[in-house]
Amino acid sequence: MKNRRMLFLLLSLVxxxxxxxxxxxxxxxxxxxxxxxxxxxxxxxxxxxxxxxxxxxxxxxxxxxxxxxxxxxxxxxxxxxxxxxxxxxxxxxxxQPFAGEEVVIGLMTDKSGxxxxxxxxxxxxxxxxxxxxTEGTMEVAGRPIVVVEKDNGSDPDTGVQQARELIEAEGxxxxxxxxxxxxxxxxxxxxxxxxxxxxxxxxxxxxITAENFSPNTFRTSRTSVQDALVMGSGLLGMGETFVQIxxxxxxxxxxxxxxxxxxxxxxxxxxxxxxxxxxxTIYAPIETTDFTSxxxxxxxxxxxxxxxxWAGAGFAPxxxxxxxxxxxxxMTVGTGVGDNQTxxxxxxxxxxxxxxxxxxxxxPDNEINDWLVERHMEEYGTPPDLWAAGGMMAAIMxxxxxxxxxxxxxADALRAVYEDEFSFEGPKGTTTIRxxxxxxxxxxxxxxxxxxxxxxxxxxxxVEEFGPERTVPPCAxxxxxxxxxxxxx
Length: 489
Known about the structure:
By secondary structure, the protein is α/β, with parallel strands linked by helices. The protein has helices spanning 2-25, 31-35, 42-58, 66-95, 119-133, 156-168, 181-193, 224-235, 250-265, 292-300, 315-324, 327-330, 340-346, 367-380, 386-404, 411-418; strands spanning 103-109, 139-140, 143-151, 174-177, 197-200, 217-219, 241-247, 269-270, 281-284, 305-308, 332-336, 354-357, 423-426, 429-433, 440-441, 444-449, 460-466.
């Protein structure tokens, strides 16, 4: 009787186990499996299958009823309840791994030196660019943007010191700016040594992305070679003989030699300093206010066309003295057509001059430029000029780069993005970064100055627009980076 009872008990136990195992492994999914993410399906399954089979195998007679019911009841409910939360947190971190961490941008400018008339406009455009690119949040990939601004007065030594301070003391992840090309060139090694990205704007020296090239330096500013492509094309139809005046600094030398190359390649001849070193140019210190001796050299040159490359407050006395000494009566004058402030203050004696204009608020026809004009008027009471447009472009490039890296501001991550045929939309339309040398291919304008007293700063008329495909300078990298340049076609 005892044996029969024991046999019956064992048969009952087998039946119960069969029912339990059938419920765990059958076609109906347990509630926990439907709630958990795909990655957490394994844990409930292991707990439900392993526990009931191990416990009855070891102690079939002592606790047949308790083990199969306790283990499946606890394991599937406890593990899935915790795992989805951890999985969700990991997933969110994967989308924005640096969320909450500040990203610091060091903004380098000049508000006290020789180019101080440009610095305020540059920084105003940069802050508006951040506003536009982040849709007013001042965040990118979950990271609050902090801007630390430094005024280097266009002094290279000060610029180097401040670049180091921005990186080492302020924790700058990215450097942006430099009105002065000389300061920009001095900043390049600092960014390279500290392995941070530097976006040059508005410095125009070709050397930034040529003989002084660094893998960590990019630019949204145009180069003087691009200026020369535009203005040289226009001026070659206005005369055959040329002379230049330019400041004796990195910008002036780079600009003058770029014009020299373009004009001579087009058949023009220079009547003064016609050598590869002189670049057909009369050089003057950037601080010059009395240009009489230099203007007399220009008049003595006998050239039909004068090319003026200048920057800073010197434009006003230069043009005034040129007018007094009869330069505009003797020759065609081509120049860089600058910002609204410089035009109003310095071009009254230069009505009719033609030249390259990087940006004028009346020229581009796109929604981003409309936004910039409206917001600049709201904030500052005047329309934006080329320095503001350039500042906006640098801000957009920085933000879109960080968006593409999910907030990773490391040089390796941003470089990979910027060198992958990177382009962005700005106030002048599409700008594309050339992977080989990091030149910014962009639209430029050939214009004529028609007045300097319009109440809405409508000082110029468009002669011809040059799209990015027409402002492509040759790749001018030197060893050890020369091999980056594609073969000449």
